[in-house]
Amino acid sequence: MGFPVSLRIDDPVVADETAKETAKETAKETAEATGDAVFAWLRAVDERFSPFKPDSEVSRYDRGELAADELSADLVHVLDICERYRAATGGAFDVRLPGRGLDPCAVVKGWSVQRAAELLTSAGLSRFCLNAGGDVVVSGGPWRVGVRHPELADRLCAVLDLTDAAVATSARYERGDHILDGRTGRPVTGIDSLTVVAPTLTEADTVATAAFALGADGVEWAAAQEGCEVYAVLPGGRVLRSGGFPTADAAAA
Amino acid sequence: MKRALPVLVLSVAGLIPVWRYAPSTGTTSTTEAVSTPPASSSGSSSSSTSASGSPVFTGTTVTTEKGDVQVQVTYDGDKITAVKMLKQPNHPQTTAAVPKLIAETLTAQSADIDAVSGATLTSDGYKESLQAAIDAKGA
Lengths: 253, 139
Fold this sequence. Notes:
The complex is a heterodimer of chains A (253) and B (139).
Chain A: E1 5-9, H1 12-15, H2 21-49, H3 57-62, H4 73-88, H5 105-122, E2 128-132, E3 135-139, E4 143-148, E5 156-162, E6 165-171, E7 180-181, E8 186-187, E9 193-198, H6 201-214, H7 218-224, E10 229-234, E11 238-242
Antiparallel strand pairs in A: 1-2, 2-3, 3-6, 4-5, 6-9, 7-8, 9-10, 10-11
Helix pairs in contact in A: 2-5, 5-6, 6-7
Chain B: E1 8-9, H1 28-35, E2 56-58, E3 62-64, E4 67-76, E5 79-87, E6 101-105, E7 115-117, H2 123-127, H3 130-138
Antiparallel strand pairs in B: 1-6, 2-4, 3-4, 4-5
């Protein structure tokens, strides 16, 4: 997968200048150790689930070297999510496209980064911002998260005000037309960029990718998913967003 | 500086039909079957009146914006044992509420932010990205 990961931990003790040195040191060590654990976990996930690594569990399963009942609980869980969204989109979202190998990356990414965020939470950290290749999980806001403008890489098209939430964006700009509609096998062109805010990144990322695969109909579909708010840029610069999409007050921007 | 954006609220009112069940208007057998469960002694197979066995009632057709709705209800005593849709709108959105979407115009803005959500960044794309600038500032 190979995406850049940024982690910022702002827990009160770490950030508090007046805190006792020993307490600060301990908190800092915890934060650093947990940060290391996050990166180690994400690297391990890449080894296990990358379809581009011939020795990964995904590749071995795809080649028939592993039977379905030999898979790890994590991969079974990921494949269950893939199947649920394939059914929910009438086959538009499909990790087994004809002529291509099994590629559950869209679900693996959101799920693994969500699990990384849970590592931070279970270590007692309560205020952090984790950005893994444009997929963002925040805890203990207020956090301000921008949505990249689909045409102007150094500008934003929306700014979100978040406390505890996950944000994922699917778009055509970074890697071209890489999302295919499983119903037709053709690249999706009905949406330029689609952002989903949800309670977890597993939901946000999967819903964003699945909605993108549905094309223009995907905006309404995503907005109807429980707990999800959506912001979509359509060709021609038209924007559709759901009523609860948490855009920051324009005056504060 | 504030700019007014044209906002259009797409009306999706009425996409959620209210399905009303209207029982067929008061025949005597209807009233008796609903209000009086048959006594167990009279419930033997010899009792052949359909009204005291498993009465089936058909509601009147109700016209909604999305089409006609008609239900059939089967009773066992005073319990409903089956409800069948005889007529229902052939419309995929009859089961789920459709959220309102708000239409806006795309704007390009700059703001002080903590993170950027975007499509999967490659390592090369990252170097040029807003997120890289944020990380450099914090490091």
